[in-house]
Every structure is written in C-alpha cells, then in structure tokens.
Q: What sequence folds into this?
C-alpha cells in the first residue's frame, strides 16, 4: 500500500467514526423519547458501520510502515480522539438506556433486573478498560 492510499484509508476511517458518533448521539435522543422503531433502525445502521470499521481496521494493517509520516501521525491522533468520543457517547447511550429501563420499571411497579452484559460493557467503557484494536 502506498502512502496516499493509506492516508485515504485513514480519512475513510475518520469519516466512519464521525458517522458512528452521530448515530450514537441520535440513539440517546431516541431512547429518551422511547421511539423503538427509530432506535432499531439506528442500531442496525450502527452494526453496519461497525462492520465496515472492522474491515478498514483490517486493511489498515497493510500500511503500518507509513505510521512515522507526520501527516499520518496527525490523522492517527485525530482518529484516537474520535475513538474516545465514540466510547464516551456509547457510555452515555448505555447509561441512558439503563436509566429509562429503571424509570419504566418503577412506573409500572416492576423490579429492575441487572442488565448483565450491557452493564459490563458500560463499566468497561467508563473505567477505560475497553481498548480499540
């Protein structure tokens, strides 16, 4: 892979992260409004975005020899910041969903049950123990 292809790939990765951030922020709004049809659509879209991101990450391995280039270093720093924003926005979305679930349970006189894996993911995101590949 030549440098220009690698830079283009990193730019696509950044664009994809920006879309994931927007999608996640929209999820929070849909969760608060309890719009499940729209939320399901957003979650499907997020899944597709994450699948595309996984492909880009795999392709990115081919151009690692360019990581010492200043232009690449700037892009990678920007990507790292975006990844942190994705993690923070995801933590907010998960916490919002948990809060809404608790609120709905209380409103209906039900007992709130431990959400299990969602809570584990939330704490991994919040504590910083989650890492990007």
A:
């Amino acid at each position: 892979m030549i440098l220009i292809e690698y830079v283009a790939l990193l730019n696509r990765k950044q664009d994809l992260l920006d879309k994931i951030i927007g999608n996640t922020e929209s999820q929070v709004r849909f969760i608060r409004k309890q719009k499940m049809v729209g939320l399901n659509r957003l979650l499907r879209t997020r899944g597709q975005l994450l699948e595309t991101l996984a492909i880009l990450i795999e392709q990115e391995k081919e151009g690692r020899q360019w990581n010492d280039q200043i232009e690449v270093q700037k892009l990678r720093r920007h990507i790292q910041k975006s990844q942190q924003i994705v993690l923070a926005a995801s933590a907010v979305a998960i916490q919002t969903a948990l809060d809404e679930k608790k609120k709905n349970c209380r409103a209906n006189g039900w007992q709130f049950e431990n959400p299990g894996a969602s809570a584990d993911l939330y704490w991994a995101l919040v504590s910083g123990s989650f890492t990007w590949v």
